[in-house]
Every structure is written in structure tokens, then in C-alpha cells.
Amino acid sequence: MTKRTFLALAAMVGAGLAGCQKADHGLGAQAVAKMAHDPGWNGAAANLAPNDPPGEWRRPGRDYAGTRYSPLNQINAGNVAELKMAWSFADGVPYGHEGAPLVADNTMYLVTPFPNVAYALDLTKPGAPIKWTYSPNPSPMAIGKACCDAVLRGWALADGKLIFNTLDDHTVAVDAQTGKELWRTKLANVEDGVTTTMAATVYKDKVFVGNSGGELGVHGWLAALDLKSGKELWRAYNTGPDDQVKIGADFKPFYPWMRGKDLGATTWPADMWKHGGSASWGWITYDPDLNLIYYGTANPSPRVPAQRPGLNLWSAAMFARDADSGMARWAFQFTPHDQWDYDGVNEDVLIDIPWRGQTRKALVQFNRNGFAYTIDRQTGEVLVAKPFGNLNWALGVDPKTAQPIVNPAMQPKPGVKLPNACPTDIGVKDWQPAAFSPRTGLLYAGIFNICMDLTDHPVSYIAGTPYDGMEMKRHAGPGGNWGEFMAWDPIQGRKVWSIKEPFMTMSGALVTGSDLVFYGTVDGWFRAVDARTGKVLWSQKLGSGVIGQPITYLGPDGRQYVAVYAGVGGAAMVAAQQPGFPPRGDTLYVFSVGGASNNSGPGLLSSQPGKPAAQPDNTSPSQT
Asked: Which of 47, 238, 299, 481 is catalytic?
């Protein structure tokens, strides 16, 4: 491409981006008014299988599609301002609390960050006492190997089991009723730099688990375990020759540049794929009709791009795989030759959309690179790719190839400081999951406004030690706010409304059948907003920053509750020097209208769970 051609293309794409950014301010009063009277106004919908009981929450994303939508509507715009804390639980662990509590059969299930202690709380008794505790005793070595805090992003309930990962690379299943260990499977060696921070995910009769550790040069993979026994059934690597990546004759990427033999090896310098990172530590969703799972891969290793010329497939990408065999059906790389650590591990929310006169099975990912993708989940065709926040590393996405058009001025070089690259390494959005409402057709997500001054330096690979090479100084982007919460139209590819936050918005989102959206901020605010207008209806300051995932459930008293962990940590610590940054925390907060519950009140003052308080003796001493 000549310089003149590039500049012309840049001007054209820049004008297009400017139009998108202008649209980000909202759809206008008429569109909002139409939406307020027309549920599902854009026609987007979702399959909410397996259609669990409305009052339960059995997996982090609630349903296979990962919508994080609850049909509960007792808490609504008319009474949400009356929310008060009903009860709380502190687990005493100082690391980042990123997981979502689960609820089934009148029991709440929690798993802490390292040392990954599991608790079952009895919701039928006063004070929600502990039914059982299970301690897996992971190796302390894992703390030193973990890239970004000793976190755990979730756990799952299935087949009468609570299933979760430990930081030192084990997957554990315990009896949900008793806490007895049923099986425990070792998947890797923590001394090699492999850790496990993702939520174990269960679909059908399999548990899906991926690894962390790209900053230590691990070889990324996703594995499937037998739900009953824990036996490993298959493992697909994310880089390497086709047989290791589980690519066969049925692999059909939509775009020609991702077709060819052994691209997971040949798009790297010789043998670098063996320690090329590209781990899978994010989310997995599932289409039961197609029998496909969807998940992403992380940054290539080392993070210094000059050391690994080539596309570096299949890093910073996503796969669609057959859930039974693990064989890849298609893949898509969001950021070829990722130079900024943008990954592809964020959640893929499965929705169905009207598209040019047809209904298309789609998925939506808010990628860390700053583009929101709506992709046909049967074929891998990109339908929409629009910026959803501040970015300058790319000028747009080529509509023919779906490759980003990289801004040459924003490419890092070893030993040279690159100022004000946007977004920062954790992206316009990190792993914190979005929510989708079938009532509005919109997705809701916490996002960032953070840029970085970046300097690379060459590194050498030594197993189990840092294989990184990036040094960043992060700072707020234009406007000075670090965070934002938004509603997004996945068909038009634009914001409907957004709320600027001075601190990062790094909690998951929850949306309900009463058109309420809940989210939290790194400085500890937990909010409820109107899903259609973005109006803040309720806020509560908690004891620490919120980076967990809120849920809602029905208690045994038939009352609706909202629960969220407060315990700052993880990637949110990039803002730890910001004035007002909160202390660490370890507390689960549970809210209800008026703070009412079967777990609190004057009639339940007891040190022994389940026993009523003794009544006061009003007899005076002279009368005894």
C-alpha cells in the first residue's frame, strides 16, 4: 500500500469512526421513547436454555447463552430505591473476589479466591449458617505464579455437584449436599507457570476448563472432563499443528486468511508456538442446537511483538468447537499479531438477531481491542464490528477481511517509549461479563477509558518465569474518567446510553425481568439503573471495590434478593494509586426491599442457628 493510498483510507475510516463515536452519545429521545413502549424493540432474542427455575442461579452466566438475565421482577423501578442489606458473609480472604454466588435448593454456594475454600450456606435458617466447608489446600506456589492476583472467576452446579478450579491447576467436584470430595483432577504443573483462574463450565455431561499463564509463556489449551468421574476426555491446544489444535476436515473459517494447514505453527517463528501463551482463562458459552461451545484465547507470548513476526494464530482469537469431540468448526482472530495484549477471552453472548430479512444465530463479544463484534455463530462471519470506547491503535475494521486496520503510529518498538496508546493492555473491556435482556434487545457492560505509555524490551523464555517484555504506565483517557457503564445495540453497533464513572467499572452485569440493570464500581458503589434509559435508580456504597458478578434469586420465603461480592483486586489494581482507591475486602452483600429476610430481625437474635432468641426477663430483682 502506498503512503497516499494509506492516508486516503485512513481519512475514510477515520470519518467512519467519527460517525460511530458521535452515535455513541445515544439514539435520541424518540428512539428511547419507542424502546420504552416496545419490549424487544430491535428484535434481538436469546435461547434461555436450560430454563432453570426462575428463582435459582446455577452457573455464572445463568443460562447456556451467558445472558446473565433473570426473569425475576419483584424488585422493580417502583421499589428498588428501598433496597437495604438483608445479610452478609465474610470469608476472610484478601485477594480479588471476581466470582458469582450460586443458588439452588435453598442453598448458596461460594468459593473463595486462593486458597479456594468452598462454602454452602443454608438459606432456610436464621443468619444463613454454614452447612459445610470444603478446603482443597492448593499449593502456595500458585500465588507467585499467578499473573494478576490469586483470583477465581466462578464455579458451577451440575449433577448434584459443586465444581470449581483451584489456582494450582486442579478441578474439583464435591457433593453439593455434604461437601464431600467426589473427584479431583490435576490438569497441569503449577511449577511450569500454569495456573487456573477461570470458572469451570459444565454443558451436558462435560466440564470445560482452560489455563492461565500467558505472561509466563505457557502453552494455552482447553480441556473437557467427564462430569461423573473427572476423567480428561479431550484437550485442544490453542497454538501448534492442526492435530494438537484439533483442526480437521470440518474446520471452515469464514475468512480465507485463516484457512491453511498447520497455521497455528507456521504463523510463528520456528517452535515459538510451544510457549506462545494464548491461554483460555475466560468464558465459555454453548449452543445446544448446534452442539457448539464458544470461547476465546489470550495474548501471544512474549508480549513483545518484534520477537514473534507473523499472525501468531490462534492467539487473541476465538474458537467454535464440537462439544463432544472438541474438533474445531471455525475460528476467528480478533487482533492478528497482537502487539498490545488485547486477548480474545471475553464472553461470547449468544443471541438471535434479525439481519437483512433473516434471523441469524449470532454472538456478541466486546473485545479488549475496543471493537464490539456481532458474529454469525454458525459460520464465523463478522456482521458488525464497531468501536464501543476510546481507541487509537486501529483506524477501523476492513469489511472484506474483518482484519483491523492498524495505525502505524501506534505500533510498539523495543526500547522506544510509545506514549498514549489506547486502550491499555486490559482493553476497553476486560473479562467482566456483560448481560443481555431479551426484553430490550440490548447488552449491558462495564467498560474502561484507560490508555497507556508502553515500552517493550526483549525477553528470553525460561519455564515457570516471566516471559513478558511489556512495561506500561496507565492513565485515564479523554475526559479523565476511568470507567463507564453502557447499553449497546448489537445490530446497529452503537451505544444507546452510558454512565461515566470516575473509577473503573469492573463488575459483571445483571439484568432482570423488571428492566433493572445492576453493576458495581472499583471504588465500591453498587448501582441499579433503568435498562431502557440508563437512569440511576439506587446506589449503595460497599466496604470494598466491586469486581464480582451480581446475581438475583428467590429465597425460601419467596422474596427476591440481589447478591454481590465486594473485594477489590485482580486487574483493577492497575488503578491502585488513584486517590480514593478502596481497601481490599472479602464480603458478600445480600439485599432485599427494606432489608427484610428470613435471616434477620428481632425475633431471630440467636447465637445458635435455627433456635429462636430467648425472651427478655422483665422481672425486677426485688420480685424474684
From this structure: 299
